[in-house]
Each structure stands twice: as structure tokens, then as C-alpha cells.
Amino acid sequence: MIRVLLADDEDLIRGAVAALLGLEPDLTVVGEAADSVAAVAVALQTRPEVAVLDLEMPPGDGLQAAAEIRERLAIPVILVTRHARPAVLRRALAAGVAGFVPKTTPAARLAVIIRAVHGGRRYIDPDIAASALTEDECPLTTRELDILRVVRSGAPITEIAAAVHLAPGTVRNYLSTAMAKVGAATRHAAAHHAWEQGWI
């Protein structure tokens, strides 16, 4: 039996996938988690052979959990995502992730992928791989990206300014420009867009 950890912050999805994988004769779900911190803790407790993690789990994201699980347990990790951006794919591959699939993947197909990565192979969804070849260039400057990284933490303007060593007014100017470039109504939306695109 291949021991599997499932981590997804959406209880209904996680429960459904666990139930469907449980029907497979050679797979057993040994642990479930609803966030990235719990995913690492449950992995250390249950010692799975494959971890299947949602990329968008709070806090942080599934990629951070994947890196820590790989470092501490040396097991293959599959990331599942709604936002399969090419730059995120590159970061995942650099972190040693063994599989990268969209949330539209049927459970039976996911079972096949779990077996493949357990056997030492790597699986990248073909559509995600193809999109990596046509990725748009990032329109944001290095400074704008630095500021948006801090915005992702939820910090107010004064803390963002202190973190990037700029005056609050200057930070507001950079944010206005970044928001205009990506067509976002708020700084948080701009930061989320940049994260989805894999720029930060």
C-alpha cells in the first residue's frame, strides 16, 4: 500500500479526494491537513510515502510546505492548483516537486500520478507545461516586486515602507504604478496577481 498525505484548505474537496483515493486497492490516505503548517506536522507524524498538497493553502502556500516535507522526509510531493502559472511551475520544479497538476484532475488520474511519482517518475500536466513556453513577460520593476512581496504579508503602508527602506509616500507611488500595470484595484489584488503569475 502506498501511504498518502492529503492537504487542502477546502474540507469538501479534501474529503472527496480522500474517499475516492481510498477506493484504490493500493493507496491508503494516512493523514489529512487543512493548512500548510498542519501539512508538515501531519507528515512528520504519519510518515507518508507521497504528499499531495494544495498550492494555495494558507498560511504561506503549499510550495513552502512541500519544500519542508521534502527536506525532512525525502518523499515525493505533488502540488495541486487552480492557478497553474508557468513561473510557479518553475519554482516548484526547482524545489524538487515531483508532480504538478490542476484541480480539474479526476481522482482516478491522480491515483495514476501518485503511483508514478512513488515509482520515481515526475509528472507535469501537459497544459501547464505548454503554457510555460508562452509565459508573458513581467511588466513590474524589481522595486515594485519587492514592495508587493511585503504587501502579501498584509502589512500597512508604514511597515511596508520600513521593510523596503523607502518613505511611505514613495511606496504609495510605486504601488499605484504597479496596480496600473496589472490592472488591479487594490495593492492586495496587485500582490495576489503577481503571486499567481509567479513573479513574487
What is the fold's blueprint, element by element?
Layout: E1 2-7, H1 11-22, E2 27-33, H2 36-46, E3 50-54, H3 62-73, E4 77-81, H4 86-94, E5 99-102, H5 107-118, E6 123-124, H6 126-131, H7 142-151, H8 157-164, H9 168-182, H10 187-196
Parallel strand pairs: 1-2, 1-3, 3-4, 4-5, 5-6
Helix pairs in contact: 2-3, 7-8, 7-9, 7-10, 8-9, 9-10
Task: Describe it.
This protein is an alpha/beta fold and 200 residues long. The chain folds into 2 domains: 2-133, Rossmann fold (3-Layer(aba) Sandwich); 142-196, Orthogonal Bundle (Arc Repressor Mutant, subunit A). 52% of the residues lie in helices and 14% in strands. It is built from 10 helices and 6 strands; from the N terminus they run E-H-E-H-E-H-E-H-E-H-E-H-H-H-H-H. The chain has helices at residues 11-22, 36-46, 62-73, 86-94, 107-118, 126-131, 142-151, 157-164, 168-182, 187-196, and strands at residues 2-7, 27-33, 50-54, 77-81, 99-102, 123-124. A 6-stranded parallel beta sheet has the order 2-1-3-4-5-6, with helices on both faces. Helix 5 links the parallel strand 5 and strand 6. It is elongated and about 60 Å long. The relative contact order is 0.11. The model has no long low-confidence stretch (mean pLDDT 90).
